[in-house]
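Run log // design_07
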């Protein structure tokens, strides 16, 4: 039986600070919180984790308007300490529509040609060219995390204050802040909600299905298609099917399988760790093979944890980790092992037939063999993420493996149409 580590909650109260001087020689930032308006649509796309830097500079385009200044700074997670790579920043004359309050197919952010925009690099830094003075909306976005502020831009260059470039900790439409609708179905061992709170997400913004292990509370949520489809990201952290009642093998429930498959295909993100691998193996068969797994629930669950030296396989994630001084680290508390990933027939965002091979983000060394430890794959318009290790807190600070997995989580929450998360028309 695994031991469970409890942790104090770290909350972050976000603020918005700015400097106001419309007559000065630098872009002026007068905060004017605005309500995002619109219906259930609204793009929530952003960029992945590239060392992308600024987007195409408007002054480099023939016939483009003159650049009047540059807005620079760093995009941070809500906690103000973790830089966000691949965040999209742009200036617009109107605020974007609100992100849908239920599962939806994210169609990326579509910008008109000539719109000033930039992508933050692996250190979270950005350089955004401004092409007009006056009141404009500054939009900062990564996946479903978006902050919108009305600012006044005057001629000149200015570094934006960190308080303005934080991703929001919770949704506040009146203020211009939005985050994904998150539900954690507590499994037993992996306290992902604590990791999310350490990232700076407000505890009140995380819906938690509290169950003793895997029991009737989890079943009630997962068999309710309307409830599942009211979320953007559903977390199924490590749990145990092998214990006596009230535990039940929910991964074999055909209604739950149908609901999760429909949720992902419609654009949802499903996050699964460790002993809950059966939700992947049974609902999305063929993508990932698990060591020791059979038709019996949790047959591939290892009962002795192992630590594995990490090997970050994704170059952009590696750059982001290196920028934080984490080029070398160990994955602690692995209880399952992936034997292989395989190309598998599925559908794309438009419902057309597609063949998808899971993307390997991080490998871990087990008994001298490098094995996939964090993988993701697309199904329909959504994505599935699995890791063999816990984000379960080991300290009051974010551990390297928590940062790696949270970085991947941000990446898999972006749109699927464009590598940069933005489409310029």
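design_07 sequence
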């Amino acid at each position: 039986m695994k031991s469970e580590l409890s942790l104090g909650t770290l909350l972050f109260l976000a603020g918005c600070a700015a400097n106001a001087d419309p007559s000065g020689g630098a872009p002026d930032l007068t905060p004017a919180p605005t309500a995002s308006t619109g219906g259930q649509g609204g793009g929530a796309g952003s960029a992945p984790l590239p060392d992308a830097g600024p987007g195409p500079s408007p002054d480099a385009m023939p016939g483009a308007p003159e650049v009047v200044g540059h807005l620079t700074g760093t995009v941070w997670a809500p906690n103000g300490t973790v830089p966000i790579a691949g965040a999209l920043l742009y200036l617009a004359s109107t605020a974007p529509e609100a992100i849908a309050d239920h599962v939806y197919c994210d169609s990326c952010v579509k910008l008109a040609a000539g719109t000033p925009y930039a992508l933050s690099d692996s250190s979270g830094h950005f350089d955004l060219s401004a092409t007009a003075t006056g009141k404009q909306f500054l939009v900062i976005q990564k996946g479903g995390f978006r902050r919108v502020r009305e600012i006044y831009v005057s001629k000149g260059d200015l570094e934006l204050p960190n308080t303005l470039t934080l991703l929001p900790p919770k949704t506040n439409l009146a203020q211009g802040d939005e985050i994904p609708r998150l539900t954690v179905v507590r499994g037993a061992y992996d306290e992902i909600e604590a990791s999310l709170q350490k990232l700076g997400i407000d505890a009140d913004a995380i819906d938690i299905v509290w169950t003793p292990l895997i029991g009737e509370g989890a079943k009630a949520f997962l068999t309710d298609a309307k409830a599942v489809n009211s979320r953007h990201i559903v977390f199924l952290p490590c749990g145990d099917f092998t214990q006596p009642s009230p535990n039940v093998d929910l991964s074999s429930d055909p209604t739950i399988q149908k609901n999760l498959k429909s949720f992902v295909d419609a654009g949802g993100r499903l996050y699964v760790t460790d002993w809950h691998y059966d939700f992947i193996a049974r609902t999305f068969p063929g993508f990932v093979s698990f060591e020791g797994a059979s038709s019996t629930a949790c047959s591939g669950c290892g009962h002795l944890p192992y630590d594995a030296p990490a090997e970050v396989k994704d170059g952009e994630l590696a750059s982001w980790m290196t920028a934080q001084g984490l080029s070398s680290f160990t994955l602690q508390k692995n209880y399952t092992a992936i034997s292989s990933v395989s190309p598998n027939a599925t559908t794309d965002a438009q419902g057309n037939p597609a063949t998808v091979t899971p993307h390997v983000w991080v490998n871990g060394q087990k008994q001298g063999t490098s094995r996939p430890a964090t993988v993701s794959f697309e199904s329909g318009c959504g994505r599935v993420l699995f890791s063999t290790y816990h984000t379960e807190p080991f300290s009051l600070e974010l551990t390297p493996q928590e940062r790696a997995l949270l970085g991947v989580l941000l990446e898999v929450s972006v749109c699927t149409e464009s590598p940069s998360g933005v489409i310029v028309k």
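The CA atoms of residues 27 and 154 lie 4 Å apart.
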